[in-house]
Amino acid sequence: MFLGRFSHNLDAKGRLAIPAKFRAAVADGLVVTRGIDRCLSVYPLAAWQSFADRLSALSKTDSDVRLFQRMVFAEAMDEVLDGQGRIVVPPELRRYAGIEREATIVGMNTHIEIWEPARWEALSAAVEDEGASIAQRLADLI
Amino acid sequence: MFLGRFSHNLDAKGRLAIPAKFRAAVADGLVVTRGIDRCLSVYPLAAWQSFADRLSALSKTDSDVRLFQRMVFAEAMDEVLDGQGRIVVPPELRRYAGIEREATIVGMNTHIEIWEPARWEALSAAVEDEGASIAQRLADLI
DNA sequence: ACCGACTTCCCCACTTATCCCCACTTCCAC
DNA sequence: GTGGAAGTGGGGATAAGTGGGGAAGTCGGT
């Protein structure tokens, strides 16, 4: 269960510390890849397997499906935490998410997202304005 | 079953004592997050799980769903009581609810709410005046 | 094939924040 | 009045975040 929001810095070598609360859940490996909305997604190995299986099962006759599969799989990177609980964020993914030094790490229950801070702030501000109406719309779904 | 209203103080480290009557129900963990109307909500772990599972199950292809998930999960924090029956209220959540030193803790049957005292007072006063009419409007719902 | 340069990984060190434990005071119950 | 539990506060130990250095492996060039 990933919950909470954290601000960590990448060092000169592109390493990013995973919050201590999250480390146990990704201790046996993780996969970092492109997420939706220009963020990065980090999945525990087991969760990644089921996600990848479902994505692979989609109809390949749909061009959008193929595009999405390529986006996800091509840039995916499987890693393990180093001794200090960090991962290396590949330059390709850093560029995709616009991350340079600071990063906002967000728990999303089943997976982790990594954001460029300003981008996350923009999202957060949008919710301040529209949050109530979104909650209203989703209320009957939950 | 959470009932009653309590006034406790946060100490310099942002710790807040949970009323003794409530501790057994959250002994195996709790989640504190943003509530509606600028209060904080505290859920026992089990209750939170069922809510989180339903929210996670929604389709991530809907951008409103993603937005809502991000706000709910990012601002939530799972904790356990310390030896004195306290929790730490993270600074972001304190700011959201406007809580500084004093806090009003309210039992809401299934969960707990934490309020900035003045805000709670205003709400309470409004209910004293309009209670009957509110009840009237809800009459057919109950 | 050998040498050199670069990258990558691992380990160590420092600063800061967090957690845990202990102690005091107050309030309620007996 | 006395005992116990609950609320409050502070201090010390421990872990977390961050940065840098060194060894090993890889790649390219000579």
Structure write-up:
2 copies of one chain form a homodimer. The first copy, chain A, is of the alpha+beta class and 142 residues long. Chain A has a single domain (5-117), classed as 3-Layer(aba) Sandwich (Chemotaxis protein chec). The first copy, chain A, is built from 5 helices and 8 strands. Chain A has helices at 20-23, 45-57, 63-74, 91-97, 117-139; strands spanning 5-9, 15-17, 30-34, 40-44, 77-79, 86-88, 102-107, 112-115. Chain A has a 6-stranded antiparallel sheet. In chain A, a hairpin with a 4-residue loop joins strand 7 (102-107) and strand 8. The longest helix of chain A has 23 residues, at 117-139. Chain A is globular and about 45 Å long. Chains A and B meet through helix 5 of A and helix 2 and helix 3 of B. Chain A binds a DNA duplex (30 and 30 nucleotides) through loops.
